[in-house]
Amino acid sequence: MNWTWIFVTILVLALVGWYLSTTAGRLDRLHRRIETATFALDAQLLRRSSIAIELSVAGVLDPASSEVLAEIAHDARLATDSSMDVRVSIESALSEVLIKALDDPEEVAFLREDPAIADLMDELSAAIRRVELSRRFLNDAVLACLRIRDNYFVNWFHLAGHTPLPEPWEMQDRTPEGLTYLGA
Fold this sequence. Notes:
Blueprint: H1 2-57, H2 63-78, H3 84-102, H4 105-111, H5 115-149, H6 152-156, H7 177-180
Helix pairs in contact: 1-2, 1-5, 2-3
């Protein structure tokens, strides 16, 4: 009977160790996925701001819209090292400016008559879509990580180590209606 209890104890400890090991491995993979998704989102945000700057200097928007778009897009390019709150507000402001400038399908259709501007609009539309997808991918990874880190055993055994708690990236990233309308 004594050997039975020793065997059961070893089995329980092995199962707990296996659970903790697989959970720590999953957390590690999720943290790497969050880091990779953050780099991808940064790249897409920089691409979007670069294209917005190109659009602002193309001379197709009214001067006031061009000036505001250039200023906000430039601020977005410089905000890469800022805190997350500052960066989110600047990127959301860029989205709002793009929405205000390109939300009218008829005006965008008129701008698309120039082939160079049509290509620029297509690039901007694709960049906005990639930002939206990158942000969603990052937020999915963050939510999965937060669900696991909310577990009592994860906190008690410090399976996340000293890794800071990830935060979802909430920003305005709606595609302007004028860019989604292609005239067909």
